[in-house]
Here is the input.
Amino acid sequence: MTALLALPEGLFAVLAALRRRCYRHGWCKVGTLPVPLVVIGNINVGGVGKTPLTQRLLQDFTARGVRVGVISRGYGGKHVRPTLVTPDSTALEVGDEPLLLAASGAPVVVGRDRVAAAQHLLACHPGLQLILSDDGLQHYALARSLEIVVIDGARGIGNGHLLPNGPLREPPSRLASVDALVINGPLQVPLALPAGLPRFQQRLLPGDFIHAGAQLPPRKAADFAGLRVVAMAGIGHPQRFFATLQALGLNVTRTLAFPDHHQFVAADLPDDADAVIVTSKDAVKLQCVNHARLWILPVRAQLEPDLAAWILSQLEMKNGRKIS
Here is the structure.
């Protein structure tokens, strides 16, 4: 299979390199913004932990008094133009991840065109001092101040090949031009990194289980003892979620994995379960189901060292002024 896919992989590599060169040399127009923009992205497909990282950065920047907003592609949403996420927005309209990010209190705009999305965000919130781009590493039409790449510690860069022969959107050499790397979870595979590349460690810490209908108090894993428990996930790397439940000591009867950004319907909820446990990302898409058996496992990112402080120091050096 690898040999059969070598030709399309080579074509993908040439087109990706040509596209990036067009923007780097000014052959294609690059939009700039009046405030710094930091990209939180990845070179490989699949869930790597960008959304929890972005949530944590929003929390840390807000705690420092920095007025920060977010732009996102809004995968899975039906929006056709830049759209501000509001309390009335649904995952069907704006995607699942933007709803999670907006829950932090920061303004979020979704849009296929990141330049237009950022401009709309600033038009709605002209006092912003900093914008985070949730994903968008390969969206070279938008100028960026810093690039932060997230890599899953368990999977690394896979077989090191580009699509469709492997999981990579860009070659591993792309890491030499980014500003920092965040490793999500313990690094379990060999990973050759450019010398001097700042590196941060992320851990996802699970909280108590929250009842989706808000009718019952939070639970620990032991509170599900004796129940038929089904774990359900429609995220980029569902096995990480299932492994987290196992590590917590939860006796899961079976697991159900759906494609990333899956738009759930009532029929997806299993009938043979006393409790169904989902991620926070999936919970925002499950307004269509009976919440009586639905439980959510929230996670929060822990970063070492302090990435938000590092970003602010880098932006101060680049721009010659402090953001506060």
About this structure: DSSP finds eight helices and 14 strands in the chain. The longest strand covers residues 199-206.
